[in-house]
Amino acid sequence: MLKPYEENLQKIREEIYGIGEEIIYANKISLSALKENDLSMLKDVTLSIKNLSIKTNEIDNLIVKTLALYSPEAKDLREMVSYLKITNEMLRAGANSKIFVKTFRQSFTNDLDKHSILEYAIPLLKASNSAFEIAVSLLKETDDKAIEAGFRKVSVEESKTDDLYAIIGKNTLKLISKNIELSKDYFDVLSSLRRLEKTADRAASIANLILFARVGGEIEQAK
């Protein structure tokens, strides 16, 4: 039987993982919508930031309560502090996913050059989703080397999103120069895609926090 502290720690991990799964599910729907060029599918993204906020607050309260009651040792304290930061990163990732869906649906009109946008938007969303999914999976990983390898994989995917977004930015400016009256729609699309890059940043931060929790080292400054 697990001790009370260990029970709380296990519950905290599971609750954070559950939030991650909700966001991953929403992101997969978004990717399918872009691949099939069917934005009506985005209506199935029911991610609620209010509900995520309530859940993360409950986890934070449990973390604080556990810290107060059980006075964990240095390693355990490091892990609990990391989880306290991870809940915030999860909430920010969820907000990015939700805003992407809302803004992209509104701005991706038939007047735009959809092919030119989707050519790089789909790989961007795919890399962003991959980074986040790998990061969330590390919550259930117990092997230090596997966590370090996972962190490197997340970093690679996050770097891809930076490169892809830069390409999209340049292409969007070219499209605007050809059709200036659609500049607002193009900029809104670009703004929505920026949220995907930000989600990958959150994934990198989560992976770094998990690495810090289990292995130690330094917490890298999130973007």
UniProtKB/TrEMBL annotation:
Q: Which Gene3D superfamilies match?
A: Phosphate transport system protein phou homolog 2, domain 2 (1.20.58.220)
What residue stretches are annotated with the PhoU domain? 30-97, 129-209
Pfam families found in the cross-reference section: PhoU (PF01895)
Alphabetically, which GO biological process terms does the record hold?
A: intracellular phosphate ion homeostasis; negative regulation of phosphate metabolic process
Source species, domain of life? Bacteria
Family under the similarity heading: Belongs to the PhoU family.
Q: Which PANTHER family match?
A: PHOSPHATE-SPECIFIC TRANSPORT SYSTEM ACCESSORY PROTEIN PHOU
This protein is called what?
Answer: PhoU family transcriptional regulator
Source organism (scientific name): Halarcobacter anaerophilus
Q: What phylogenetic lineage does the species belong to?
A: Bacteria, Pseudomonadati, Campylobacterota, Epsilonproteobacteria, Campylobacterales
